[in-house]
Automatic annotation (TrEMBL), chain A:
Domain of life from the UniProt record: Eukaryota
EC number: 1.1.1.153
Subunit structure: Homodimer.
Name of the protein in its database record: Sepiapterin reductase
Automatic annotation (TrEMBL), chain B:
GO terms for cellular component: cytoplasm
Protein name (database record): Sepiapterin reductase
Record has Cytoplasm as a keyword: yes
UniProt keyword list: Cytoplasm, NADP, Oxidoreductase
EC number: 1.1.1.153
Originating organism: Larimichthys crocea
GO biological process: tetrahydrobiopterin biosynthetic process
Classification via PANTHER family: SEPIAPTERIN REDUCTASE (PTHR44085:SF2)
Family: Belongs to the sepiapterin reductase family.
GO molecular function term, any single one: sepiapterin reductase (NADP+) activity
Quaternary structure annotation from Swiss-Prot or TrEMBL: Homodimer.
Amino acid sequence: MSDIHSKNPRTLGRGICIITGASKGFGHALAHEVSHLLKAGSILLLVARSQSLLQELKQELQSFTEEQQLVVRCIAVDLSTREGAHETVMVAKQEAVNEMDHVLLINNAGSLGDISQFASFTDLDKVNSYLSLNVSSALVLTAGMLQAFPCRPDLRWSIVNVSSVFALQALPSWVLYCTAKAARKMMFNVLAEEEPNVKVLSYSPGPMDTEMQKDIQRLTGTKNNLFPCQESAAKLMKLLLDNEFPSGTHVDFFTV
Amino acid sequence: MSSSERADLGRALCVITGASRGFGRTTAIEMSRLVKPGSVLVLVARSADDLRSLQAELAESEAGKAGLLVKCVVADLAQMEGPESVVSASKEVFSEDLDHIILVNNAASLGDVSRFAKSFTNMAEVDSYLSFNVSSSLCLTASILQAFPQRPGLRRTVINVTSLCALKPFCSWVLYCTGKAAREMMFRVLAEEEPDLRVLNYSPGPLDTDMQLVARSRTGDPSLRKTFSDMFAEGRLLTCEASCVKLMKLLLEDTYTSGAHVDVFDL
């Protein structure tokens, strides 16, 4: 991991960075990591449902971000609604008044869903609601941002899909989560094929000490060996700083 | 025929979605030839007329004359009532002497293949696509499994009509690829969860259907569109019958690994 206090620190440029699900867990850790790597004049957009948690995060980042001349905006929206994604895009457009050299979109917001026997999923509305948040919103938000900040030669465009080993591996009782993660992986693979000027990375962050893991433990009795969110977030930053990954690739925490 | 290949699919209740046209229609016809008298086909689609004409055709067939019952369910699977109506119709026609439940999740749509991923800014469009192509197959399958639980003497087979698009990304096909990848994983999870259930992800190959017509005329990516239209022009599309025969063979041999992706060209 690069030393941020070294003489020539690597950065993510002067950019606009959007992080969804920023209020807790991995998204929260990403906000902290990214804020150290964005140059003066950058904008950090934190998206989640809870305005209070987002404001708390903004406060945590305050002294550092002021110093670094980073603008932090909190957008409290529910991404599973059509207004959610659109509002996020609108705010991004409003804030990006200066010349940016990097757009970094981190599609992190996600939910576990019911962990339950396959045969229990007979409620179409519930399944639709799950897929809306975990699949549709990522496509709609990404599309909106790509239209708001069209590719141009001096603009670096990076998209992260926060994925999971369960995008690849089928796990009994986890049909919703596996299905959505597999869907997202393919969705971002198609995007990578279509957009040669956009670098798309599916990153599987490993088992982290989050509320989601607490839910997993409570619902399944499985106790995983957990890593701090910060450690996984730092690995993602390294991947983005190195920028050597082939677009569309799926990288796991354990291999970084 | 190997000694382990069955001659028929038993006395079956067979539910086929998207049965009005294309691969679904052909599957209904092929199945009708392989199930024993006393079996029931439940045919699901939105088009009442197309279903009725298929029902009439099957009634006139050898199987029909030998006692095959065909029930039509006109339903929009993307609505809550859709899967529900299929399950209640299936329960109505079920009898205790049936020894095989077969569910063919075939109904699907291409989505707008003329456009690229960055144009999909309409949440309703994406939600609607996933509702029909992903959610409905999960809910229908779950409901059928609940309605006809595992018991001795009853075989249960679930088929997902999949595609190469479940495994490989194609430009301008984001919705279709995403939906197929989602379904494939869904049925892999099912296979892992239920070792007594036979789950087949069957990829039928490039078929000469209305769907292929849309693919070759509307695909946004020029080189992919050309690939499809060349296939058509050069006679390299498969008939639904040719692909279906292979599916039937897989089902009769019944040796595929549950949850595996099997492509028509693997056989």
